[in-house]
Every structure is written in C-alpha cells, then in structure tokens.
Sequence to fold (470 residues):
Amino acid sequence: MGNVRSILNAFDLLGEQVEITDSPAKLSSAEAIILPGVGAFSDGMKNLRQKDLIKVLKREVIDKKKPYLGICLGLEFLAEKSFEGGEHEGFGWLKGTVMRIKPSDLSLKIPHMGWNDTMILKNAGLLKDIKNPTFYFLHSYYLKVDDTERDIITSVCNYGGTSITATLQKDNIYAVQFHPEKSQSDGIKLLKNFIEDIRK
Amino acid sequence: MLKHRLIPNVIVNNGSVVQSINFKHTNIIGNAITAVDFFNSWAVDEIIVLDVSRHTDYRTKFHKIVEGLSKRCFIPLTVGGWIKDVKEIQQFLTEGADKVSINTEAVNNPDFIAESSKIFGSQCIVVSIDVRKSISNQYEVFIDRGRKSTGFHPIEWVKKVQELGAGEILLTSIDNDGTGKGYDLELVRQVAESVSIPVISFGGVGEWQHLVDGIKIGKADAVSAANIFHYTEHSTYNAKEYMVKAGLNVRMPTFYRLPTPRKPKYNEIY
Fold:
C-alpha cells in the first residue's frame, strides 16, 4: 500500500493533472503539493533531507501557504518527532508526536490494516458531505496531536482504545492517515473535496 | 472495529475471465476489465485477480490487464499466479497492485516468502494455499494449480508461512471449488485458529449464507467467491446486504457510478 500509482489513478479519475516529482522548481510552480508516504518514518525523512526538499516544502507550505495534502506517512511527517525505530525529527509543522499503536485488546493486530469506521468531528474541508465513512487503513504508528492543538483534528478512528488521528486540517495543511485512493467512493469524494476546498 | 471483507476473485485464463470447477477452467465469462468495473461499482472491499494460464505467452497480456484494472480499482488489488521472483512483484506493484499472492513458489522456495516480505513488507505478501482432501480424509496442500501434491498438512504449512513473514492467507478448497456447496468449514476453522494473520476463505460459495458461515463458523477474517458473482444479478450488493442482515460487521452495501478513466467525469461519482 502507499502505492503512488494508485494516487495518480485517483486524481486522473477526477480529471486532475498530477505529476511525480522531486524537483524544487516543479514544487514551486505547482498549485498544491501531495505527499504520500511509503515505508519507515526515518527513511522517508532521510530521503527528503538528502534531496534537500524539506526546506523547499517549508518555503512552499509554511511561508507561501501552498495547499499540502499528506497521506499516511505524509501526515506523520507533520509531527515534531516520531518514535518509530528510535527517535526521529519530523517537520514540526504542528505540535504532536508519532507513536506506535498499542491496542488494549491484545487480539487486535498491528499493523492496523483494513476498513474501519471513522468518526467525523468537523464536517467540512476534506470531509464535506461525507457521512459515516469507512476508510482503508494500513499503518502501525499514529500521530498523537498535542492537547493544545487538538482542534486541528477533523476525524478520528478508534482502534482498540487508541484514538487515531484520521484526518486533520491546519490552515492550508490537510492530512489523512488512511488511504483515500483505496477507500472507494468515500476516498474519491475526499480527494475531490480537497481540490474543491483549495480552489474556494 | 475492522470490518470483515467481501472479496471477489477474478480467475484469468489466457487473458479471459473463466469459471473454475475443481481447478478445471471451463466457461469463458468475459473480460477482466468489465468484471472489475462491475465489482468496483458495488461495495466490495478488495479484489483478487489470479492468472491461471499455463502458457507463458499470455503473461504480457496479464500484466496489461493488471495495469488496466488498477486504473479503475479504487480498493486494494491483489494479484497472483505463477509469481516466482522479486522482480515480478515489483513489476505488479508498479502496475498498481497493492499486494501479491504467492503459491507454488512458496512451497518450492520458502525463503522467497521471507525475502519478499522483508523487501515489500508483510502486508504486501499473501500466501495462497490450495488444499485437497485425500481418499483417507486427510487434508493436503497442493501446488502447481492443484496438480502436484506436497505432503504438507495445511496446518503445519500455514504456521510455517506465518513465521516466514506472510501477511495474509488465501485458503482454497480444491474439492469445493466451483461446486456451490459452500466452503470446507472444518478446513477454514482449523487454519484460521492456528494463525494470527488474516485468513481469506475461498472455494465453493453457492449461496450468500455460505459467506456468513465462512466468518461465523469458519472464523475467517474475509470471504471470497468467484463464479457466483458472475452469474447472479446485483450480486455483490445482495451478498453484502445479506451479510449485514446476518449481523456481520461489514461495510454497508452502496452503489456508486465509476466513470471510466478514458473520459473522466468525476461529477458522476456522486
């Protein structure tokens, strides 16, 4: 999962032009930046750092307020730090940490993989007109948002007593933990909402 | 809570979707793109596509089919059939598959499970196990699309593949395949209870109650079927509705219209 091809296919379905790039110039000229994530947190951050993309992302998203959509790892990167395989620094664009999911019910498996109900807290932005959604999740870590900033969380998913940040929005920063590109109608609708919301 | 999944299985022989009865491939049902468009419009939760062609001539066509399917499949897509190396797994993933299913090569070279799950992650590696009951009523794992016996009992084999890193099991009863008499529930339950990874039950569904039995009696995490979906109208919708009424925790049946990628008209989705 976290297949970049699927994300291209989903935006293609919506009639949107999306390009895979690591070029600062292209990131700078794009209308919005989508960051999907594959693999481990530290590897992802290392790759972004090696390609010198973190400061480009910061310039575009934080300074120039360009719309950003983080998917899965692209949500987790927003944290100050992650405890996946040690302690690693994230973008720090919001107050929070990435922790391993620890279900109180020991029969529940990690990774949290499959379709799960998601409780909407704010029916706007990415979640506009979506009711009682079920999304496809695949992850072992989750973003725990600091209490002082909890109002950025727009939906949560309960997995064995852990309240997983499923979607969030902080100004021009949008992010989802699950895979909208694999969540059929609810997921496609969410991506369509992203496009509509940033063009409002 | 995670939902139990309903998974149509699309069997592709020489580039066409076929019906399978005891692993013999008979009627050509049609083309895979149409079948998947149809399934994708209803609330199925995942799709499995297996290439059972014996001629390697059709392999390129199968790859093209996978690529075409992934453009229209906005749910997880599992691809399998004759996968023997990491390079081909990578190729399927690039073409848009989310998981691959490994069968014969897992028995011939168990290290392949360890190797591929290490590279792509366990969640990507489904091990497919085909089981036949012998005359003396013993379960045995068969490979090479049911042609070759392995001497393995499914319980020992499934524990082994879990240890090697498999993320999921696709369990098929060769005896029940295509018969419509339901899953081999005893087999499903034995396998599901001996591992902690999810088990998908496949082979034999002839009525919706069989899907419910697979989860309630067989303890499977997910249920799969092939033929019944091709020959029943509004099939996956009705199957889902039946599962909901039986009290199972599944995604609700819904319908949404999928515009074809060639002419994207996304407003039609809602």
